[in-house]
Write a structure and sequence with these properties.
heterodimer; A: 547 residues; mainly alpha; Cytochrome Bc1 Complex, Chain D, domain 2; 27 helices; 2 strands; B: 733 residues; alpha+beta; 31 helices
């Protein structure tokens, strides 16, 4: 896995034009990242869960990387019906990986089908090897061979015997493809790391192939696995056929984007596939001061959508359900720690709250990105319950200085009445609601990789093609600006576009949900955006505006 | 008589309701108890010092007892026992004394502020006195009636030229008299009290207080004393921060706009559209140039013509702090002053980085002040050139020296570069900026139309579209509507008007319908259309009706002025049809009938007027006048008597009945009424003439000559008066 650190620090480079600030922040982040990794105490559970593989501010878990299956050849390895069912409802397959586990990404049927199809398209076997097509044979004596002759049950459970130290042989036949299973038994060294307890029983180390006995033995073993899993396999196959019929247009390409969007490569190897992220989840260094303990406890027990379209908006990444037990959650909470200092906020009356609501509804850009009680954009976190979720201090600093509080976040700082800021902070800190946002369907709303500043900051509303059809369009009261509308765009002066990007939509009588980016972006970057708009419209500003 | 009494009861009810609304206003001191910060800012502000009872620290004018001579009179401001007075006399007339009961202004305004004075009159009105003071120039001055504008007091100035001499403009918005509306004070209600037969003028004070902008506070105070859970967040008062762009500007337009009154009784917090139109002033001789800049006299309402308003979100409070009246940027950060570029570059950030790239002037120089070029202070023409009354151009215009010269505007560049010719300034601007941003096509069309260069295409272009800016659309169609070409509009223009009758703007909708009614209302299809449009106007129907009717009355007045009385009568009838309570139209129609010699029709019209409102003393007086002209003197006396029973301070009524008594040779009664008419309105010429005639009839020739002379001072061209004086001279010789 090649981490893409550059992306996570990309926001710093967007501060072009403010070199001192940029340099200071870069140093600050790098140091705090290093310090943070040291400060976060080692925790076995965190290491085995691989939290740091997605979350900023933590070390990547080597343990997790060693334990996860390489998916580069999943098309050769897995029974697709199993894969589908597993993606829908992951469970523990291998019992030798401690607390590590495959989390549940809460895929819908069509999403799971798309990922399945994608995984089934991946057939990059180690060492560019090929798998030989084989015919199943008789399974007679299979159990004796497995249990008696080769004592596989020393690690694998089978027919109520054996130890649970590895995968369960009772379902191997429904889980895996027979040819790959044969290949694995013949040449396990291709698939498991050196030092693994999986022995090589057959063939030699010189590639001379199998003798007739070995061939027959492995065939019997594989056939036996299939025989005992036949009912389960048929059950899975039947269910899968129905799903395929229900979603005939699902393609592997759709699944590929979903696979990338969920940053599966944070834990799994996938040879030849581009990685979208370095990390794609909040900085754990800040977690203690970020979320309230009670909320976080419940969240870890049952995750829910916070940023429905992904940590980096548009990428569609989700916080998966790690199926944590209460004990595990308590362990994590203890490890994260609890903020003890109370931040005093300006008291807010019921009446003042209504006033702030009006301002948020009619004047401020908040709801362009954040949903509140079912209304608003879906770029940033749902703020319906923000007072329960976040600490007062975090809300305060995020409103006052989002760039430093939320490094890497799309959120720009909004200039507003200084007297209003404490009221907004207090309003948010008192915001409670049962309203929930839901993740979008990643088949319908195809996720995309964010590779530049336009895609990261503008495309959520204005679309990757500049046509105003970003994923957030559906959540907005008016259609975002269509930069491909040549007639309209040719009437606007470049400096007007610059001013609008800098200060926000409201000043141009456009929708106030368009925030100003001037506090986040450098003048050069905004000029770049203006040029991007001109590229989209393939037009120039009016003649009178040129000088 | 029963009907009369019923109508009178309604009139009393209206009076009581109007005054009872004042109870909803609590005064700024109550606001202070919960909002001390805002109160402190306000207390020091211009609004906080806008006016009040005369108090030595606020009086800028010298009440020093020094007599100031004018050409044909004098006045003398003096102070006595901490009270302020004016003594004044016009040669040939008795000396008068006015006590100052209110003063407005303190010379606060940067472009030249003034201080004016009000006095309470016997009829219950509070009237503007003619004696104004200009603190910057340290001179008394007068508004003149001969287009000279504001003229400093001097021995060459005749009192005959003073607009407010004798005082006639009242404080508070009423339809029957010239008035200052409700702007120069807080919660001003002037209404006729039928119980006392005179006006009642009420106000909280003459500064601009909290409730002038926020509306009445009583409900707010009451609600805040309840358990908050009861009221579900409703505070009983609207936070101005949460107003939309249009509504925010409307708060300021309550005063900072030339407004046409739709109906009396406005108080802050009410729906301004229901009482005033801020665009209808364009019908009565447009005070604005086509691009919205002030042509004659105006307030800051022309901001609605600006690009910043039309294509941006700019409201008044984006630059002006409404509490302190200081300056701020769009994020409410205080600014150093009125010239601080922060007002502009907080939005126009592209200009901020290096302003000299845009201004072509040194960064710290005056030429790099945004306001220097885009909001130049301009002397309002109606004020003349004697005294400085410059106001920043709130249309936020682009300097166009040649165009400005054509309009008679001193352009922004010239304010510093007075030594350069217009052409050289224009050349410089062209060199720097190349092609300038074009005017809106409606503005260009209106320029051409006003210059008489309008081709048919230009003419059609004056009819805007529904997505065009509303001020420009209204300016365009109002120009055609009031022109003689209105009647000749094409079918395409008719269709444009049909479209515009769906406009979001009430004034445009109403004017479009009035236009169609005026020029095609007799065509069945158009009649059906405009009737349908009205029926679809829902809750806005009254606002549409009143505006529609008012527009037709404007047009009627215009055509009658041009000698087309019959056409005016038709328009007045249409005006009354759409809004039967339009007293202006009734009065106009009654008078038009008299002008056309249709006295019976005039009697019917005034009769209908008093049927609608039996307390309408003007209607009764009109009826009396018409009946008198028809020779029905007995009926006329009855009608005038009713007028005076309602309002015994109605000078025209006393003149009317006095003239009939004169004709009937009831000299004593005639004399009593004519004397009363003169007492109430010393400028009422005819009363002097009739009174002089009575004196002649009684053989009091010396007295007659004296009275006649006064009448002729007022109107030297009065033919009968001149003849009478000539005869008297002959007799005396």
């Amino acid at each position: 896995m090649v981490p893409k650190h550059i992306y996570s620090l990309q926001w710093i480079f967007s501060l072009g034009g403010r070199p001192i600030l940029r340099f200071t922040l870069l140093i600050f982040i790098l140091f705090s990242s290093l310090i943070g990794q040291e400060e976060m105490p080692y925790n076995k559970l965190v290491e085995e869960l691989g939290c740091g593989n997605c979350h900023l501010g933590m070390a990547i878990s080597d343990t997790m990387l060693l334990r996860t299956p390489d998916l580069s050849y999943s098309g050769e390895k897995y029974n697709e019906a199993f894969l589908y069912a597993y993606l829908k409802e992951p469970y523990k397959v291998r019992h030798n990986i401690g607390l590590s586990r495959m989390p549940n990404f809460l895929f819908s049927d069509d999403e799971a089908l798309a990922v399945t199809k994608y995984l089934m398209s991946r057939k990059n076997l180690p060492l560019d090897s090929k798998i030989q097509k084989r015919t199943m044979g008789a399974s007679t004596g299979g159990f004796e061979i497995i249990h008696g002759d080769y004592q596989c049950t020393s690690c694998h459970p089978l027919n109520n015997v054996g130890k649970q130290l590895s995968t369960d042989f009772n379902e191997t036949g429904s889980r895996l493809n027979s040819d790959w299973m044969f290949d694995f038994i013949e040449t396990p060294e291709k698939y498991v790391p050196k030092g693994s307890s999986m022995p090589k029983f057959f063939g030699d180390d010189f590639g001379h192939g199998l003798d007739e006995y070995s061939e027959k033995t492995i065939t019997t073993m594989v056939s036996y696995f299939f025989e005992i899993s036949q009912a389960k396999r048929e059950e899975l196959d039947s269910a899968f056929v129905l799903i395929e019929q229900a979603y005939p247009n699902i393609t592997a390409e759709m699944g590929r984007k979903i696979f990338q969007s969920q940053f599966c490569q944070a834990c799994h190897q996938m040879t030849g596939e581009e990685i979208w992220f370095d990390r794609n989840a909040p900085d754990m260094n800040q977690q203690k001061t970020r979320t309230n303990k009670e909320w976080l406890t419940n969240y870890l027990l049952k995750t829910e959508a916070i940023r429905p379209f992904g940590f980096f908006p548009g990428t569609g990444s989700r916080m998966p359900d790690c199926r944590l037990t209460e004990t595990e959650v308590n362990t994590l909470i203890d490890w994260i720690g609890t903020e003890t200092e109370e931040t005093q906020l300006e008291p807010i009356t019921y009446f003042l709250s209504r006033k702030v609501e009006r301002l948020i509804d009619d004047f401020l850009p908040c709801k362009g990105c954040h949903q509140m009680d079912g209304k608003g954009g879906e770029i940033g976190p749902d703020l319906s319950n923000v007072g329960e979720r976040l600490t007062n201090e975090f809300i305060k600093t995020a409103v006052n200085n989002p760039h430093e509080t939320l490094p890497g976040s799309i959120m720009p700082k909004t200039e507003m009445d200084p007297l209003l800021i404490p009221q907004i902070v207090s309003y948010l800190a008192n915001k409670r609601s049962d309203n929930k946002v839901i993740y979008p369907n990643l088949v319908e709303q195809q996720p995309y990789q964010v590779t530049d500043s336009y895609e990261g900051n503008c495309a959520p509303c204005h679309g990757l093609k500049g046509d105003g059809k970003g994923f957030n369009e559906a959540s907005l009261p008016v259609k975002p600006g269509d930069f491909t509308d040549t007639n309209q765009m040719a009437q606007r002066a470049d400096d007007t576009l610059y001013d609008t990007i800098h200060v926000g939509g409201r000043i141009m009588n456009k929708n106030h949900f368009m925030p100003g980016w001037g506090e986040k972006m450098s003048p050069q970057e905004i000029i770049g955006f203006v040029q991007t708009i001109r590229d989209f419209c393939d037009c120039e500003q009016p003649g009178w505006a040129k000088n | 008589m029963i009907l009369f009494n019923k109508r009178l009861i309604f009139s009393v009810l209206f009076f009581n309701i109007a005054l009872s609304q004042l109870q909803d206003f609590i005064g700024s001191d109550i606001c202070e108890s919960c909002h001390p910060d805002q109160f402190e800012l306000w207390k020091q502000s211009t609004h906080g010092h806008a006016g009040g009872v005369p108090f030595s620290s606020d009086i800028k004018a010298p009440f020093n007892g020094q007599k100031i001579d004018l050409k044909d009179g004098w006045f003398l401001p003096f102070q006595q026992d901490n009270r302020y007075f004016f003594l004044a006399q016009e040669n040939g007339f008795p000396e008068v004394k006015y006590e100052v009961s209110g003063m407005v202004g303190g010379g606060h305004l940067f472009g030249g502020g003034t201080q004016a004075f009000f006095s309470v009159f016997p009829d219950g009105t509070m009237r503007l006195l003619p004696f104004d003071y200009h603190p910057e120039k340290k001179t008394w001055f007068f508004e003149t009636n001969d287009l000279s504008g504001w003229v400093p007091a001097s021995k060459s100035l005749s009192m005959r030229k003073l607009t407010e001499w004798p005082p006639n403009r009242i404080m508070g918005g009423i339809s029957e008299k010239q008035n200052c509306q409700q702007c120069h004070g807080s919660q001003i209600i002037t209404t006729f009290d039928p119980n006392r037969g005179k006006y009642k003028t009420s106000f909280t004070n003459l500064s601009i207080n909290c409730e002038s902008c926020h509306g009445p506070g009583q409900e707010h105070v009451s609600l805040m004393e309840f358990d908050k859970s009861i009221v579900k967040g409703y505070t009983g008062i609207q936070s101005l921060k949460t107003l939309s762009k249009d509504k925010s500007v409307e708060v300021c337009e309550q005063c900072h706009a030339l407004k046409d009154m739709i109906r009396p009784g406005y108080l802050p917090g009410k729906d301004l559209d229901d009482y005033y139109s801020v665009k209808f002033s364009m019908l009565g001789g447009n005070p604005f140039h086509p691009d919205g800049r002030v042509k004659t006299f105006g307030y800051q309402q022309n901001h609605i013509f600006s690009d910043c308003y039309l294509n941006g979100s700019m409201t008044c409070i984006d630059c002006h702090n409404p509490h302190s009246n200081g300056y701020q940027d769009i994020n409410r950060n205080p600014l150093k002053g009125r010239f601080d570029n922060g007002q502009c570059v907080t939005c126009h950030v592209s200009k901020k980085e290096k302003i000299s790239n845009h201004s072509f002037h040194k960064t710290k120089s005056e030429g790099s002040r945004c306001t220097a070029c885009h909001m130049p202070f301009q002397q309002h023409k109606a004020v003349g050139d004697h005294l400085r009354f410059t106001r920043a151009d709130h249309t936020i215009s682009i300097p166009r020296p040649i165009l400005d010269q054509q309009l008679g505007i001193k352009n922004a560049c010239q304010q510093c570069h007075d030594d350069m010719t217009t052409q050289s300034l224009n050349d410089q601007i062209t060199e720097w900026y190349g092609e300038l941003k074009p005017l809106h096509r409606l503005e260009s069309a209106l320029f051409s139309f006003q210059n008489g260069k309008a081709t048919d295409e230009h003419f059609l272009n004056l009819f805007g579209l529904n997505n065009d800016p509303t001020p420009q659309v209204f300016a365009g169609i109002s120009a055609i509507f009031m022109s003689e070409r209105a009647i000749t509009i094409s079918e395409t223009a008719v269709n444009r008007l049909k479209d515009l009758s769906d406009n979001k703007d009430l004034d445009i909708r109403a004017l479009s319908l009035a236009f169609l009614d005026a020029v095609r209302g007799d065509v069945q299809e158009i009649e059906k259309f405009i009737t349908r449009q009205l029926s679809l106007s829902g809750k806005d129907q009254r606002k549409i009706r009143t505006r529609w009717s008012l527009a037709l009355a404007y047009k009627a007045e215009g055509v009658i002025k041009n000698g087309k009385v019959e056409q005016g009568i038709i328009l007045y009838k249409k005006s009354i049809k759409i809004w039967p309570n339009n007293t202006r139209a009734h009065q106009g129609l009654g008078d038009a009938f008299l002008t056309a010699g249709k006295i019976d029709s005039s009697i019917v019209t005034f009769g209908e007027m008093v049927k609608i409102n039996a307390a309408d003393w003007q209607g009764w007086a009109g009826l009396g006048k018409a009946q008198s002209m028809a020779g029905q003197n007995g009926l006329a006396i009855g009608a005038y008597t009713k007028a005076l029973e309602i309002n015994n301070y109605y000078s025209e009524g006393h003149l009317g009945i006095g003239s009939i008594f004169f004709k009937e040779s009831h000299n004593l009664q005639a004399e009593r009424h004519l004397m009363k008419a003169i007492e109430l309105d010393p400028s009422i010429t005819d009363a002097y003439i009739f009174l002089a005639a009575i004196k002649i009839r009684l053989g009091e020739l010396k007295s007659a000559a004296e009275i006649l002379n006064r009448g002729l001072i007022l109107n030297p061209n009065h033919k009968i008066g001149s003849m009478m004086l000539h005869e008297l001279d002959v007799i005396n010789q």
